[in-house]
Amino acid sequence: MAALIERSWKLVSKGIDFAFTAWRFRVHFPKKYGSSTSAAVLNLDDLIKRGLIENVFPNTRPEELQQLLSTPQGWYCGFDPTANSLHIGNLVSLVALIQGQRAGHSPVAVIGGATGLIGDPSGKTADRVPMKAEDVENNIESLMENMERIFHNHAEYINEDTRKLTSHRILNNHDWYREQDVISFMSSTTRHFRLGEMISRHSVQSRLQSKAGISLTEFMYQVFQAADWLHLLQHHNCSIQVGGNDQTGNISSGFDLIHKVTGKYVFGLLVPLLLSPSGEKLGKSTGNSLWLDPNRTSPFELYQFFVNLPDSTVERYLKLLTFLSLDEIEAVMLQQNQSPEHRHGQRQLAEQVTLLVHGEEGLRSALRCTEVLFGDAVSHLRQMALSDLQQLFVNASTSDVTHDPQMTLQELCMAIGCFSRDADAERIIKAGGVYVNQGRVSDPSAVLASGDFILPNNITLVRVGKKNYFIVRWVT
């Protein structure tokens, strides 16, 4: 967190204007995507131009795919509950589902309550650590909340089309495996698979060549993902699967199974993997993920990540993660290129991603936190709740202090543990090293009266030096 604040402060020192106010929050909400998303008509080229679709499987039947996209279909994407939050890489797939929803298709998000217990070998060098069923269930609940929140935020704050959006579904694939027994599954489903084709998958080949090899459990993952797609086609008309471009093998298995069982052609839309500015994958396994749960990555941290992106990545992320039309993005980038020091593109991106993930209140919180660090601190501190401050200063201690109208600054500093000795407190306060609500106070005997010292929300923020924050909650 400290590193994040330091990076943000460096940007400010270069003259970046972070004067975000409430009217900006309103006028910069996303606009309607445009004619390309008219009901039940979706031009695949639009999603390709946005970089949202990186490849199609199979890529040999474009006319049939476009014909499917011109009539209402189910679009599905799977998410295994291997953590208690989705991450920013998952957001790309959710945006793709919502782009389909805006065109009249029906988005289906599938949480892998069953497949999460098996483990996807893609991108792994060894078997995943088996998960406890209780942990999987808890993760499922968290992921459902993440998804519902994002679908809701898009419908409530971003979509401006007067036509009603199609309904979304969030399913758990354990529901359709619960009643099956292994014998019936083997006799009805796995007989359609050929070992040669299964072994040829890249995810399997890379594991076979590794020291750890691959277990039969994870080898069978592609069978279950293929069976998921068949079930979803039969029950929810899901002829389209959305997945990361590292899922080509699993999508191919589903395509083969469906064609053998039904004779139909279905299609996979492959979305790109998100990379950090240094080129690393953003995800759970790499330890650098931005989480979509506010308890793991706060709205402020999410906002600041996008505000601090290098100029070279802004246009790509605007196309991938927002619902601005390509014309609107072009206008944003024109303003960005004319005055890159103002970071107009980064601010647009940060606002709209935060709005999609955390809604209006989440964006307000992120903007308030930004102002506390870089703008008019006192006026915004007056509006902040304790939770806002705790997400902004994650390492700060929070102390409940009984209000005494005669308490001095030095007494407060000692009461909340800023210093271990009165002599140190007096010396550092006099030297200008203590700040109350981001304003320097150099008088140890200053009385903490209401106003700039005790804010209307009964909170005081104390800072010692550059990075040591203490939150005071006044009680009577």
UniProtKB/TrEMBL annotation:
Its EC number is 6.1.1.1. CDD domains: S4 (cd00165), TyrRS_core (cd00805). Pfam families: SYY_C-terminal (PF22421), tRNA-synt_1b (PF00579). Gene3D superfamilies: HUPs, RNA-binding S4 domain, Tyrosyl-Transfer RNA Synthetase. It catalyses: tRNA(Tyr) + L-tyrosine + ATP = L-tyrosyl-tRNA(Tyr) + AMP + diphosphate + H(+). Residues 407-470 form the RNA-binding S4 domain. One of its GO terms (molecular function) is ligase activity. NCBIfam families: tyrS. This is Tyrosine--tRNA ligase. The gene is LOC101859010.
